[in-house]
Design a protein that fits this description.
single chain, 10-stranded antiparallel beta sheet, binds protoporphyrin IX containing FE, hydrogen peroxide, Catalase, heme, EC 1.11.1.6, iron
Length: 537
């Protein structure tokens, strides 16, 4: 193995690889097979015999080859790589992989569309998932993000509704496209907190040129906690070394027809050629004392932290340098979970994040067939696992010993817990108080300020693309009332935008509200000075 292939995760995977080419065929019991083309029959023209165990085994395994696709993000592609730290983050976090400049951590990164099923086209207008598993010496850390910095909803309880609205409609299972149908736009107008995300979704960010040319965002506010127990709020960013580039809609549609695998092909071929894929890793940090310094709530996942107010500090680089050996074993069986953290990284009370902490293991229990999916090669941490969890379908570990409970007085050989000093994970002791209520701070209901900033930060060609996207997607909606509500909603972003949509989809022009003067007839790019830096990558 050469250097780039010799990281610890790769050495672990090597122990599971099966090199079958040129070998003698066996059954799953290891018996050499003499005949693999004709089943055993009673005479030349007779029925097949049950006794043919090789036929039965081969067919049974085939019959069980499929597992459920992910309930979202079904269409995805992944690669191995490494994360290298540029500067120590020890002032902010005690996470071991963020201490020593130059230290390297193996990673596995899966990029996906959200709405389409497993075989759908890759260049469709959609959010892209951006999930990274860091195999650290303290256990797996998963940063499960997207290529847009905000989200559609503010509370996890709405996620099933969002996805039911985004996925193909249940009565006729159409369309595959996320945003070109009545239920999607009906959800949007019924949940106006989606306004900011919809602006990103209708922008060129939703049709990336390549997986290598898009940003990634952790979206939620997390916490970094240092060895002294001091915490900072943090947002995570991935910045592509090649810059951010998008397709235009016409290209995206043509490519979807001609090469539905366009993005995976691009990623695979780049890595095969040795043209490795690089993303720099950045953090935005806010001190705990500054939690309430902003005119939005930093726990609100529909709001970003303006980069000119909270700059992104670049602290490392991820390089994707090795394609998978087997897409099913690795890309399909990988299980990411925003709750997989290491000491020094913790959660915030973002109500969307809190719900995600429940959802991922729950879905993987069915998708990956029971409680032992952490033993699948791609999911194994590179550090050892010791606990009293036992048995279940597909169990591989052979736990030795009489006792499988903690604590016990029979023997002294069951695993014991670690103190914080020994590296035990201790949850951040945030003080919480309040009544049990189903509401959030008032600023959660400001749905349009940042959506407007986004619009104002666009150049004229970008604005025209956004209008074209709205016109195409909303134009597919059959219900005229929903179309009208879209116009009435987005007049809160900009009157010129709403008027252009109204014209394109044939409903009444919006009333009231000021415009920044946008018109599709305008010739020269305009920028709003105040906000133009906010969204630059
Ligand atoms: C995948 C739930 C919001 C990023 C998934 C899966 C579920 C899920 C059930 C399938 C996991 C699997 O089968 O392994 C939820 C819920 C959310 C939510 C309940 C909100 C309450 C988000 C947000 C982001 C995100 C805000 C981005 C910050 C992803 C990604 C994947 C994924 C990247 C694909 C992971 C992979 O490649 O395997 N989500 N999600 N999700 N989710 Fe979420």
């Amino acid at each position: 193995m050469d250097n780039k292939h010799s990281d610890e995760k790769n050495r672990q995977l090597e122990t599971f690889r099966s090199y079958d080419a040129g070998k003698k065929m066996t059954t799953n019991q290891g018996l050499n097979v003499s005949e693999d083309e004709h089943s055993l029959k009673a005479g030349l023209r007779g029925p097949t015999l049950m006794e043919d165990f090789h036929f039965r085994e081969k067919m049974t395994h085939f019959d069980h080859e499929r597992i459920p696709e992910r309930v979202v993000h079904a269409r995805g592609y992944a690669a191995h790589g490494e994360f290298e730290l540029y500067e120590s983050m020890k002032d902010y976090t005690k996470a071991a992989f963020l201490q020593e400049p130059g230290s390297k951590t193996p990673v596995f990164t899966r990029i996906s569309t959200v709405a389409g099923s497993k075989g759908s086209a890759e260049t469709v207008r959609d959010v892209r998932g951006f999930a990274v598993k860091f195999y650290t010496e303290e256990g797996n850390y998963d940063l499960v993000g997207n290529n847009m910095p905000v989200f559609f909803i503010q509370d996890a309880i709405k996620f099933p509704d969002l996805i039911h609205a985004v996925k193909p409609e249940p009565h006729n299972e159409m369309p595959q496209a996320a945003s070109a149908h009545d239920t999607f736009w009906d959800f949007v107008v019924s949940n106006q907190e989606s306004a900011h995300m919809i602006m990103w979704h209708m922008s060129d960010r939703a049709i990336p040129r390549s997986f290598r040319m898009m940003e990634g965002f952790g979206v939620h506010t997390y916490r970094l906690v240092n060895a002294e127990g001091k915490a900072h709020f943090v947002k995570f960013h991935w910045k592509p070394k090649l810059g951010v580039h998008s397709l235009v809609w016409d290209e995206a549609q043509k490519i979807a027809g001609k090469d539905p695998d366009f993005h995976r092909r691009d990623l695979w071929e780049s890595i095969e050629k040795g043209d490795f894929v690089e993303f720099e890793f950045g953090v935005q940090l806010i001190e705990e004392k500054d939690e309430f310094m902003f005119d939005f709530d930093i726990l609100d996942p529909t709001k970003l932290w303006p980069e000119e107010k909270v700059p992104v500090k670049i602290i490392g680089k991820m390089t994707l340098n090795r394609n998978v050996d087997n897409v099913f074993a690795e890309t399909e069986q990988v299980a990411f979970h925003p709750g997989s953290v290491v000491p020094g990284i913790d959660f915030s009370n973002d109500p969307l994040l809190q719900g995600r902490l429940f959802s991922y293991t729950d879905t993987q229990l069915i998708r990956l067939g029971g409680p032992n999916f952490h033993e699948l090669p791609i999911n194994r941490p590179v550090c050892p696992i010791h606990n009293n969890q036992r048995d279940g379908y597909g169990r591989q570990a052979i736990n030795v010993g009489q006792v499988s409970y903690h604590k016990n007085s029979l023997v002294n050989n069951t695993p014991t817990t670690s103190t914080e000093e020994e590296g035990g994970f201790v949850h951040y002791q945030e003080k919480v108080e309040g009544r049990k209520i189903q509401a959030r701070s008032d600023s959660f209901s400001d749905h349009f300020s940042q959506a407007r900033f986004f619009w104002n930060s666009m150049t004229l060609p970008e604005k025209k693309h956004i209008v074209d996207a709205f016109s195409f997607e909303v134009g597919k909606v059959k219900d005229k009332n929903v179309k009208q509500q879209v116009v009435d909603m987005f007049v809160n972003v900009d009157k010129g935008l709403a008027t252009a949509i109204a014209e394109a989809v044939g409903v009444k022009h919006p009333e009231g509200k000021e415009s920044d003067g946008f018109s599709t007839k305008e010739k020269r790019p305009r920028r709003n000075k105040e906000s133009e830096r906010i969204y630059t990558g």
